[in-house]
Amino acid sequence: LEKFTKFNLTLEKLQNHLSLLEELEALDALQEDLRGKAQIATEERNRVLKELFDWAADLIAVCRIAFKDEPQTLERLGIRVPS
Questions:
Q1: Are 78 and 60 within 8 A, CB to CB?
Q2: Residue ranges in 1-83 assigned as alpha helix (H)
Q3: What is the pTM of this model?
Q4: Does 1 score more than 70 pLDDT?
Q5: Is there a domain that residue 68 lies in?
Q6: The domain containing residue 68 runs over which residues?
Q7: Most buried residue among 15, 20, 26, 79 by CB atoms closer than 10 A?
């Protein structure tokens, strides 16, 4: 401890720095955990969006069949009809 005094480091300062390092390690672990959770949430979002887009594509296909002779109905549903 005497070697640290020439650097103006006291036991109290060293303990404070150690405490700050431990807090930093805890925050780093938390950040890593949150990064993993964000990745999982993104994968789940992408999976659900794909399911939604697949369902919407099926719905559009069914509407095109059901209203094949009613292009105005398809247009009202937001389905583009080739001219």
A1: no
A2: 2-5, 11-66, 71-76
A3: 0.65
A4: no
A5: yes
A6: 2-76
A7: 79
Q: What is the dihedral of CA 71, 73, 77, 82, to 10 degrees?
A: 10
The predicted-structure confidence for 56-77, as pLDDT tens digits, reads as follows 999 999 999 999 999 999 999 9
Cα torsion for 13, 16, 17, 20, to the nearest 10°? Answer: -160
Amino acid at 47: R
Q: Report d(CA 59, CA 16) in Å as an integer.
A: 63
Q: Say how far apart CA 83 and CA 80 lie, in whole Å.
A: 9
Whether residue 81 lies inside any domain: the answer is: no
The mean pLDDT of 5-13, rounded to a whole number, is: 84
Contacts 24+ apart (CB under 8 A), 55-61: none
Mean pLDDT, to the nearest integer, of 6-19? 89
